[in-house]
Amino acid sequence: MKKLVLLFSAVLFFNVSAQKKDKDYSNILKSKNIYEINAFLRDAHPDDPRRSVLKPRVMEMMKEYIKTAHPADQKVKQMQEMLALLKRRPSTKISFDEMNAIIKQKQIAKYKAELAAKQSTVQYTPSNAQNVFVANTAATSNVAAIPDAEAEEFNMLMSVSPVEHKNKTVKILNSLFDNDPNSKECIVLIENKSDCNIIVRMEGVGNTKYRLAVPAHNDNSIVVEKGDYLFTSLVCGAQYASQKTIQKPLMVALGSSGK
């Protein structure tokens, strides 16, 4: 009997704890906060009657924010994007597949621009003390140097000839446009959010291995054979390792700025 009481108490405790973790929208109708109302619209049941009141309200709040915002306000673009979504759907919630499609279109635009310009949008200049790269700007950005053990290898991977870069870009674009499920290859996008340049190593079955250099606060892509891989990297001195099965386009974000 004591065991049953203890079990019941434990279940009740976890249920109460889980409920406390849920967002409290009991006073949402009084809210004047754009982000709070936006979160409610994403989380609430489709038939929740409060939607009919809060959706038009938050849209008007967004319009007013855009109207009165400073020209340099970075939030204006975000508000415009949320407003555009709310005009087409019940909330700004985006599915995983939709997010993948957005990322894919951005990558296609990026590599198309590179082919049109006949050069990389990122020009990399190696240095003995630090690694420096330029991304569509005349100003240079100093970033933390990667470990000496990888500096030479990073320089080599980044220093590709124009012909090699063009061939790689064409291959990536072909992969981005390829929707054939029977294709043997797939694209992997690595986003480096850290302050350090990194090399991501992908080891598959047998001798299948890939290396991808990714500058700090930038991204890079590679086309690999589908299969199981061990991803490893040294991110600002911290070891990263993860097993991934690649059967469709994959995006991996590593590191975080300011750390």
TrEMBL record:
**UniProt keyword list:** Signal
- Domain DUF6759, first and last residues per copy: 163-256
Give the range the annotation lists for the signal sequence.
1-18
The organism's place on the tree of life at top rank: Bacteria
Kindly provide the name given to this protein in its UniProt entry.
Answer: DUF6759 domain-containing protein
Query: Which InterPro entries does this one have?
Result: DUF6759 (IPR046647)
